[in-house]
Amino acid sequence: MASNEMKVTKPSLEDFKDKLFRCIHCRACRYSWSDFPDKEGFEGKTQDGENRVWEGMLEGCPSGKYFGWEAHYNSGRMWIARAVLQGELDINDPKVAEALRDEVFKCTTCANCSVQCANNLPSFEITEALRAEVLKHIEPLPKHKAMGGSVDQKWDPYGEPHEKRVDWLKKLAPEVIDKQSDTAYYVGCTIALRTTHIGEATVKLLKKLGVDFTVLSDESCCGSPLIRTGQLEIASKSMKHNIDVFRAKGVKRILFSCAGCYKTFKNDYPAEAFKGIELMHVLEFVYNLVKAKAVKFKEYKKIVTWHDPCHLIRHQTMEMRHGKAYQLVKMKIGEEEEEWLDMPRVILKAIPGVDFREMYRIKDNSWCCGAGGGIKAQYPDFAIATAEERIKEAETTGANVIATSCGFCLYNLRDGAKSLATKRGGKAPQIEVIELLELLADIIEPQPAAASLVKVGAMAAAKAKEVEAKKAAEAAKRKK
Fold first, then answer.
1. Torsion angle of the four alpha carbons 255, 257, 260, 265, in this order, in degrees rounded to the nearest 10
2. Per-residue pLDDT tens digits for 380-437
3. Rounded Cα–Cα distance for residues 130 and 81 (Å)
4. Which one of 124, 197, 254, 398 has the lowest number of neighbouring Cβ atoms within 10 Å?
5. Does 1-42+55-139 carry CATH code 1.10.1060?
6. What is the pTM of this model?
7. CATH code of domain 296-447
8. Does domain 142-294+448-479 match CATH 3.40.50.2000?
């Protein structure tokens, strides 16, 4: 299919009509519970001496916790969506549309609600569909509208000149810009234009691992901020541009260091968009090397905990279960999903000197950093308050470092740490938030040619075939 025929297509609110009636308003979606009702908890103190007990069902909905009204919990949003579909809320009325917009966009779209739902309601997808429906009747919120206009005109949400995307790389590794290679590193807008240190670390890491790669100067916004905020037409325009750019270069695999970009290419673009092209997060590449015992690290003596980015972790395991996740009977998490959840933990535990400690809400049940879904741009106070909660949870483990791998998580958690430090009368945060890719770039030992991307790519392909064979066997059993 030609790229000009492709669109970022998401199910409409009408498509979810039958599923919406699965919601019985039990409010399980408010919590972090899922498969761990008997999980052992613990008691700990934050760095200002506040005693916290982590056990049982804890809150899992950032918007509900911050705003407090039923409309801000997923259970309330599901009933709002139902009311719109049934005509009980007249969305054609400008006042109603404005009121709806002001409520349904106060959500990080972290998808914890979807994980917790006993009836397997695809609630975060319904929220995105409800947002798109609302925007048929009213303009986006100011910050979201500005992002959309900027992507439409300049291919990025920050309003920067397009040619500026590779300025940081011209100083570091100009030879990789637009070179011919089977492997491309998709940098993304935020890393290329704001958090260039993550891009620098990724390039340094790939070079240490002997990867031959290119960075294409004409790449555009992945479209994630627009998809999350219901601006699908502009997202489609940017997607088509990206498809044309990567296809024209003939790449066979695309690497990512941005969790949001990875999720968008892998989960939101049409399946045929990059048919025959492998999409891989750099952490997945490193993980495969760790499994193969083909990588060595320098010592890193720190007490470390891990924050699961929603786009990289929870959204991916949900995608792996697509096709069975929304059945009436809940399916237990499988081996493939469990391996993905463990991936960053396996890497951290392989680093000499690391004392790894888990928070209470982890993996599929993780508490969101607060930056996603357009929240950081439009509701910064909400974003920071959500990050503060995560910082406190990390502090009670005794860790002095929080590792994550998402630029938005990184900076919002840092903002949360700074905010808490200020409230406590301190001048600097007492807990450090780091990007795992930056740490790996510093402590990983240079690899021989044997530890090549080709080898890892073959391992990934073999794993994919194994997974497909298991799925086929399961399907055959069900037919019998």
1. 0
2. 999 999 999 999 999 999 999 999 999 999 999 999 999 999 999 988 889 999 999 9
3. 6
4. 398
5. yes
6. 0.92
7. 3.40.50
8. no
